Q: What sequence folds into this?
C-alpha cells in the first residue's frame, strides 16, 4: 500500500520538469522569431537585390569583354527574305550587329524594336543590323510579319537553326547578339536581351566603327 501511495509523488517531479521543458522550448522559439525579425529589419530584402538584376542583364558594356573577341564569323549560310544565301563574311567592310532570335522567344521580341532603332540611327553608315530568325518553316510567316513591323530591319532566316551552334563558342541562349568589326572579326557579344536604343549602345558601335 505504501508503495502505491508513493507512485504519484514520484511522478510529480517528472511532470513538473516536462512542463518547464515545454515552456522553455516555447520561449526559445519566440526568441528565435524575434531574432529573425530583427535581422530582416537590418538587411535589404532579397527582392531589392533581385530588382537590380535586369539593369545588369541589359548592360551593353559587357560586349567588350568576351573570350571570342578577335575570332572570324562562322562559315555558315543563312538566307534573306528572297531565299538568297548569305554569310556574315559577305558583309565585311561594315560593322555587323548579328542578332539570333525566334518568335517563340519573348525577350527576343522585346528587344527587336530597339535593334530597329539602332539600325535607323546609322542610316547611310556602314552598320548592318542582321536579325536572323531560327524559326522553322512553320514559323516563317509569323517571323516575317514581326520583322515587317520593325523597319528598317530586313528579314533573315536560318531554318535549320544551326547558327547558334556554328558560333565559337556556341550561343548561350536566345537572344544572342554578336558584333563584328569592319575587318570581319568579332568585337563582343551579349547573351540575353539588351536595350540597344540608348547612347551607351551607340557609344559601343561608334567605337567599333572608328577602329577601321
A:
Amino acid at each position: 500500500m505504501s508503495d502505491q501511495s508513493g507512485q504519484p509523488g514520484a511522478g510529480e517531479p517528472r511532470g513538473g520538469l516536462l512542463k518547464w521543458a515545454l515552456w522553455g522550448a516555447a520561449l526559445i522559439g519566440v526568441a528565435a522569431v524575434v531574432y529573425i525579425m530583427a535581422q530582416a529589419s537590418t538587411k535589404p530584402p532579397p527582392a531589392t537585390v533581385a530588382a537590380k538584376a535586369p539593369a545588369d542583364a541589359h548592360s551593353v558594356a559587357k560586349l567588350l569583354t568576351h573570350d571570342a573577341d578577335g575570332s572570324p564569323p562562322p562559315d555558315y549560310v543563312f538566307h534573306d527574305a528572297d531565299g538568297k544565301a548569305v554569310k556574315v563574311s559577305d558583309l565585311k567592310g561594315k560593322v555587323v550587329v548579328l542578332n539570333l532570335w525566334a518568335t517563340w522567344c519573348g525577350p527576343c521580341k522585346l528587344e527587336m524594336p530597339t535593334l530597329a532603332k539602332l539600325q535607323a540611327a546609322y542610316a547611310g553608315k556602314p552598320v548592318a543590323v542582321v536579325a536572323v530568325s531560327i524559326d522553322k518553316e512553320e514559323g516563317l510567316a509569323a517571323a516575317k510579319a514581326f520583322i515587317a513591323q520593325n523597319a528598317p530591319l530586313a528579314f533573315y532566316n536560318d531554318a535549320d537553326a544551326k547558327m547558334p551552334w556554328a558560333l565559337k563558342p556556341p550561343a548561350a541562349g536566345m537572344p544572342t547578339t554578336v558584333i563584328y568589326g569592319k575587318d570581319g572579326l568579332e568585337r563582343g557579344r551579349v547573351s540575353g536581351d539588351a536595350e540597344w536604343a540608348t547612347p551607351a549602345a551607340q557609344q559601343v558601335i561608334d567605337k567599333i566603327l572608328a577602329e577601321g
